[in-house]
Design a protein that fits this description.
Length: 112
């Protein structure tokens, strides 16, 4: 296992030295696609990484991951209340018909 990390050593991305360049390419409008960033890193710096590696690196480093998880946590904590302008629907004449009705199964139905 030549590429294995020894125990106790924190994980570090090999993209850290190129962080500013990668994030700047993504900040442009329109942002540079991840495929082109992977090709650019290979051509300029000789760094060969998978497209998903660059995507995850950008997601974590730009703070998107922290924002998304913060939003998901806050959604579950705040109860949703109906807007003040919303009112309950009025009862119609049909509602009063179903209140006193009882359904009785028909024993003759379905027999031959």
């Amino acid at each position: 296992m030549k590429n294995a990390r020894p125990h106790g050593r924190p994980w570090q991305s090999r993209l850290i030295p190129y962080e500013e360049e990668i994030l700047e390419l993504r900040r442009r409008r329109p942002p540079m696609p991840f495929e082109q960033i992977v090709a650019r890193l290979a051509a300029r710096h000789g760094v060969k990484v998978h497209l998903d590696t660059v995507h995850n690196f950008v997601k974590v480093r730009s703070g998107l991951y922290r924002e998304i998880t913060r939003k998901h946590r806050s959604v579950g904590l705040t109860p949703k209340s109906p807007p003040p302008s919303a009112s309950l629907p009025e009862k119609s004449g049909w509602d009063s018909l179903s209140e006193g009705r009882v359904l009785i199964p028909n024993s003759k139905k379905g027999s031959a």
